[in-house]
Amino acid sequence: MRPRLNVRLVLETGERQADGFGGFRTIWREIGVLWAGMAAGPGRERSGEVAAESVLPWRITVRAATVGDPRRPVAGQRFRLGERVFRIEAVAEADASGRWLVCVAREEERA
Question: Which burial class, exposed, middle or buried, applies to 10 when counting CB atoms under 10 A from its CB (0-12, 13-18, 19+)?
């Protein structure tokens, strides 16, 4: 089954940069643009620092690329959709043919 890839996402990777005070900060750099299909997963509630918070995972499907190809998303990278940011937690082949990848991601809260 061919997924419907109708959402344009920017794939970004984090790079550590010294902050000048002995620490570092993460700078996000655009790697490229991927067309994707997005589906919200089942929501759940978890304990936060102050109160309960809602967690909604996303299943993001993209065309497959071989391991090591810079177009293949990996855990720790993120997708950007305008101002929305989706942190990639896991990546796996969607089926035995290996034509599609499913990325499990979580939408980050805006600061």
Answer: middle
